[in-house]
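Bug report (template v2)

What were you trying to do?
Predict the complex of my protein with magnesium ion.

What happened?
Run completed; filing so the output is reviewed.

Input:
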Amino acid sequence: MKNLCLLGATGSIGTQVLEIIREKNIYNLKSISFGKNIKLGKKIIEEFQPEYVSVLSEADMVNLQNEYPKIKFGCGEDSLITAATYAPGTLVNALVGMVGVKPTIAAIKKGMRILLANKETLVVAGDIINRLLQEHETELIPIDSEHSALFQCLQSGSKKEVNRLIITASGGAFRDRTRSELKDVSVVEALRHPNWEMGPKITVDSATMVNKGLEVIEAHYLFEIDYERIETIIHPESIIHGMVEYNDKSIIAQLSLPDMRLPIQYALMYPQKLSNPKFRSLDLAELSTLTFKKMDFERFPALGMAYQAGKAGGLMPAVFNAANEVAVSLFLKGKIKFLEIEDIIEEALESFENQANPTLEEILAADSKVRTCILEKYEVK
Ligand code: NDP
Ligand code: MG
């Protein structure tokens, strides 16, 4: 049995990770973290009996400690690091947002293998993470479906034979609406993704196309390829998840039904591609057509902003990410309108002064400055 530490156990990705480890039975779940979903957290504790559990609030920690005296509990950011590095082996980071950065870095420094769903980690600190992965001679395997697809397609040739990466996008909840039809969309509508059931933040990110923007930056760092050679294309069916075009212009694509358990299992079992009774075969004849549309940067301006932030490098990917995280949480609380998410990101990118080769401390400081500026302006509205 191999050791596994899992951050974000109660989330959409976290629960699917648990489903796979229950099925495959090669991992021993040593530590977990969850936030506020205590009811589900307790079920997980009782089934998997982890040795260490990190939760958000002190009150929850105290109550849980009384209920489960044999398990160690912690709370707050430091305890996320303890949970991430509790036992040597593999970390699955399925946290949402910037909070995932420090635990990932701490685990790499311990030489752990990283299976990464938390894309924000690579977006804000991609250079630092790549450097640390080399220094500590360990690997990071993507869980995000597009990156898992690209990772698999890239095994058909060598790095210098790659011409471009193509990332597909379903178009999210509002793909058939014009910009003027987006003015008054509600939170409930934004949370209705046509193909995937995911956590609220990434579902909103899919509707704004910010998710694709984060994925472009994530791909840049994961596969060390320049932005000019990372393309996105609308593919409403979400059957092709990623494609790699080689220099001879042949394209290798990865196809499967939209089911996150597949990239999760691949990462957990890598390099094996194992059968799973719950996975369904793709019936192409039944599907009959796959459709594609050129990405529309006017309809989805946030994607252009992500490319702009990515190409600028330095602090700008962190600024893009922080502005988006705050804007999405304000939208989910009903404090701003849907289209204001883009306005907030644009304003942050325009007003923030960039800096090359920032340290982690400088990235964290930029992140918190952007958040404070936006909250001061919008939370009083
Ligand atoms: P969810 O919102 O469903 O889950 C997030 C998890 O993190 C929950 O366990 C939550 O705890 C915990 N959490 C949230 N905020 C904090 C915090 N401040 N401190 C500690 N724990 C916290 O998210 P998803 O599973 O959808 O997404 C996770 C990551 O994976 C994201 O980065 C997303 O972009 C990426 N991803 C997700 C996909 C999907 O299909 N869902 C697909 C590809 C990538 P609790 O609920 O108990 O409060
Ligand atoms: Mg994705």
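What did the reviewer find?
The chain has a mean pLDDT of 97. The first helix runs from residue 12 to 24.
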